[in-house]
Amino acid sequence: MSKKLTSRAEDYSKWYNELVVKADLAENSAVRGCMVIKPYGYAIWEKMQAELDKMFKETGHQNAYFPLFVPKSLFEAEEKNAEGFAKECAIVTHYRLQNDPDKPGKLRVDPEAKLEEELIVRPTSEAIIWNTFRGWVQSYRDLPLLINQWANVVRWEMRTRLFLRTAEFLWQEGHTAHATKEEAISEAELMNNVYATFVEKFMAIPVVQGLKTESERFAGADETYCIEALMQDGKALQAGTSHFLGQNFAKAFDVKFANKEGKQDYVWATSWGVSTRLMGALIMTHSDDFGLVLPPSLAPNQVVIVPIYKSEEDLNAITEVADSILSDLRAKNITVKFDNRTTHRPGAKFAQHELQGVPLRIAIGARDLANGTVELARRDTLTKEVVPLDSLNEKIETLLKDIQESLFKKASDFRNEHTTEVDTFDAFKTVLETKTGFISAHWDGTNETEDKIKELTKATIRCIPLDGKEEEGVCVYSGKPSKRRVLFAKAY
Amino acid sequence: MSKKLTSRAEDYSKWYNELVVKADLAENSAVRGCMVIKPYGYAIWEKMQAELDKMFKETGHQNAYFPLFVPKSLFEAEEKNAEGFAKECAIVTHYRLQNDPDKPGKLRVDPEAKLEEELIVRPTSEAIIWNTFRGWVQSYRDLPLLINQWANVVRWEMRTRLFLRTAEFLWQEGHTAHATKEEAISEAELMNNVYATFVEKFMAIPVVQGLKTESERFAGADETYCIEALMQDGKALQAGTSHFLGQNFAKAFDVKFANKEGKQDYVWATSWGVSTRLMGALIMTHSDDFGLVLPPSLAPNQVVIVPIYKSEEDLNAITEVADSILSDLRAKNITVKFDNRTTHRPGAKFAQHELQGVPLRIAIGARDLANGTVELARRDTLTKEVVPLDSLNEKIETLLKDIQESLFKKASDFRNEHTTEVDTFDAFKTVLETKTGFISAHWDGTNETEDKIKELTKATIRCIPLDGKEEEGVCVYSGKPSKRRVLFAKAY
User: Which residues belong to any copy of the Aminoacyl-transfer RNA synthetases class-II family profile domain (chains A, B) (predicted)?
Assistant: First the structure.
């Protein structure tokens, strides 16, 4: 067994990095900033994908696939968007290697094989998709277009961390086209809601829905909706965004339609995405010093059975009981694994499943067989109890629900305890230095104040909460009048 | 309605290109050689993915994800493989754009942002994966590694065609590592079998399983297994390959393990893949001059219901019947769509569903309601019949099975009729000029003869069939002795 994780109290960042690798979720690769998502990590991502995909389809969206590359001339067509990504994009300039005349056995870029126009590896696909939509939309009958794509994207980030910020990441990007502004705004709101529902219900992470300020908005958007979550170290994490793009892309790519009156008008757009970054949120919200803690909804194995035996005879008897548990639980759509590897001792198996966050562990030994019981251990609370075999199935069903709910409750309590209303800049700074978390404060609505606060404290405006009430107040920094509180935090 | 397709007899290639676009499967993009897979085409691909993924998991494989980029030094580590792909790879050389000082509002590659080492966009992932496997394998206990990846890959092909040959395509690539040669060979055979089962059972396309000759083998493989299908124009299409890679990649990337005796040995490897090229095979095997014909197993909608009405009242009555059919069929896991669009007339709907290959179409009019019947049309045979409502569900279930089977039978009959044994080179050439298809002939086993035949006839050896019998003969070209027949054909 590898030695214990660094504790969160000792070094939160180190704890996270160690956990991701030791729990077999992901690792760094030979390509700077690009990760390998390992089978166990990928199995969690697949469960997230499956749920999201179902929710997208239930809300009328269809999947499609668009090219990995964006020609430079398309990339730069929507200026704000291009500017937003120009500083961190991977660029394909050549299409052939040749033998290196100076280094036998080595290859080099063939200078003759230069592309006429450079290709940008998509950092996001608005440009290539809106260039395609032009051919798909003639009249209002062709609208709305409700498209989603599951894809890899590349942003050449300089400082990377597994799942949280990587040069290549996996995501889904929704791109929709509408006849009216109102419909597009509703779509952007709907999808932000879908994200909130998914993250709260399946990932057991409470989120605040809100709007981004102008400076934090997606490049090319008129309005960015977001869901913001709070991690255990008191830093916020943007878990998903949904953009109302106005007619910016339609104008840049000349996507017009004939409305019911036969008049030509530009189409209204949205885009929305969540990524493998959600894996980072999942890990940082629930896990502890012993390793990963997974909500049952997303655990590749919800239950694991470990046999404890000295003789072949014991193992056979235990296997018989395990098989019956397996078939009972599978009949209830509970994922369960019988860990009967002969290469590992029970202690090592316990440690591995604890590290990998399996919600429930059943241990069966010879004495259990005699008593008609098993030992049931719960990962989130680290508690154990002896359960009679005849009530096991029901117990497990109840516990899985309970774990899902109590993880959400625990995270909600943490988030609520770490959301502080402040009315002075001194109090603002004190919160950041002591308890951290979200700070709810009045802001005068200007970029200058936002920038100044960021410069002084590193805290940014995470969002203007959608459920915030109108309330007369004064800006915590400038003292100018303000009509509502916004949420500040240091963020990932 | 758009005008009719070019017929297959008139111009097969044009028929294919038109069909792919008109049936809303895919289209060309602004990026040379890269396609857009449209929602209807992607829905078919998703069904294929789902079935294959299930089969991979049932055979013990796990999904993972590896970087899009391969550093040049890793790419060239396995020489044959590097050589095989060097001539057609997209190369990232820079990571930033900047404002073009000569052209206001335009961007250019920032010459300061040159990568230290060029990155190849993966044409296949052996290099990056085996470089990763080195860290995953220490002892025989870590083996086998049974990994699959769903991904996009790029091969800078000069002549491209939608689905059949595109610069970027989607695929899955399996990569496995084993302790023994025998186990790796079994794995390569098993996965070729999985492909054959999938293609025959779900795609309703008969295939020949075989081995590739040395010159047609995957670069870096010791042996390539393949499945070969025959298209309606008599050309063969390689539908999937499974490679036994020997220890070539293990040696290139130094992947060793301690065997049970504690001795260090290189790991044995396989890789296997199928791609969106299968979409091309699916289209070309079954479709006709009226459009796409889909096997029910892969049809996004197996049944479509079209209402025929003059009054609102009729529509309401039809809708009631349709709703009951919908819920009955869905209860049987049959995918069905009620096409109640008010923007299109029934004739246009009929034409669209025919073009898009929906296996069964139900039309319901006012007279049908009075008679308690519907009109049921079958896409593959273009036959119609009147069916009483009370036997409709059963009828549909039977027909869907029948369509699946009869498409396979039709394609098998065609393949068998277009497989010709020849014993002279004159006969060989005559077959290619007249009936085309597979030619079963003796070959002397040399590269020279293979090359010469290709040069003279454009036919290549598609495979050495696995089920071929030993049979004394003489090479159809050189007259030298041969022990078994191989399959020649012109190919995609």
Answer: 27-295
Residue B309's nearest CA partner among B274, B268, B271, B341 is B341
Q: What is the pLDDT of residues B327-344, one digit of tens each?
A: 999 999 999 999 999 989
Q: What is the mean pLDDT of each run of 10 residues along chain B (492 residues)?
A: 83 98 98 97 98 98 98 95 94 97 94 97 98 97 97 95 98 98 98 98 98 95 98 98 98 97 97 98 98 98 97 95 97 97 94 98 95 97 97 98 98 98 97 96 97 98 95 96 97 96
Q: Are the Cβ atoms of B132 and A170 closer than 8 angstroms?
A: no
In a domain, B112, yes or no: no
Residues B264 and B189 in one domain: yes
Angle at CA of residue B205, ends B202 and B206, nearest 5°: 120
Within a domain: B80: no
- What integer pLDDT is reported at residue A126 of this predicted model? 97
User: Which residue(s) pair with B217 in the sheet?
Assistant: none
Residue B77 lies in a domain: no
Structure tokens at B26: 């895919």
Do residue B155 and residue B248 come from a single domain? yes
Same structural domain, A115 and A198: yes
Residue B82 forms part of a structural domain: no
Contacts of A38 in chain B (CB under 8 A): 64
pLDDT (tens digit per residue) in B416-451: 999 999 999 999 999 999 999 999 999 999 999 999
Same domain, yes or no: B180 and B36: yes
**CB-CB under 8 Å, B64 with A42:** yes
Strand partners, B373: B388
CA distance A209 to chain B (A): 30
Contacting B residues, span 30-59, partner chain A, CB-CB under 8 Å: 30-31, 34-39, 42-43, 45-46
- A415-425 pLDDT, tens digit each: 999 999 999 99
In whole angstroms, what is the distance from residue A72 CA to residue A155 CA? 15
| pLDDT mean over A364-393 | 96
How many residues are present in chain B?
A: 492
- B115: nearest CA partner in chain A: A90
Q: What is the pLDDT of residues B92-116, one digit of tens each?
A: 999 999 999 999 889 999 999 999 9
Nearest to A48 by CA among A287, A244, A240, A233: A240
Q: How confident is the model at residue A2 (pLDDT cuts 50, 70, 90)?
A: low
Structural contact between residues B203 and B408, judged by C-beta atoms closer than 8 angstroms: no
Return the residue matching tokens 């929507």. Answer: A78
CB within 8 Å of chain B, chain A residues 397-416: none
A-chain residues within 8 Å CB-CB of B159?
A: none
CATH code of the domain containing B162: 3.30.930.10
Using CA coordinates, name the residue in chain A closest to B128: A30
Longest dimension (CA), chain A: 83
Q: Give A443 to chain B, closest Cα distance, Å.
A: 34
- If asked whether residues A365 and A309 sit together in one domain, one would say yes
Chain B residues within 8 A of A121 when measuring between CB atoms: 68, 92, 121
Q: Is the ipTM of this complex over 0.90?
A: yes
Residue of chain A with shortest Cα separation from B46: A63
State the CATH number of the domain containing residue B467.
Answer: 3.30.110.30
- What pLDDT was estimated at residue A61? 98
Is there a contact between B376 and B387 (Cβ–Cβ < 8 Å)? yes
Side chain identity at residue B206, one-letter code: P
Chain A residues whose CB is inside 8 A of the B49 CB are none
pLDDT at A366 over 50: yes
Return the closest-CA partner of residue B402 out of B386, B379, B423. Answer: B379
Counted domains in chain A: 3
Domain of B240, in residue numbers: 12-53+129-286
Q: Are strands A336-338 and A303-307 parallel, antiparallel or unpaired?
A: parallel
Mean pLDDT value of segment A466-474: 93
Whether residue A374 sits in one domain with residue A238: no
Mean pLDDT of A273-289: 98
Q: How high is the mean pLDDT of chain B?
A: 97
Interface of B with A in 163-222 (CB under 8 A): 168, 170
Tell me whether residues A67 and B29 touch, CB distance under 8 A: yes
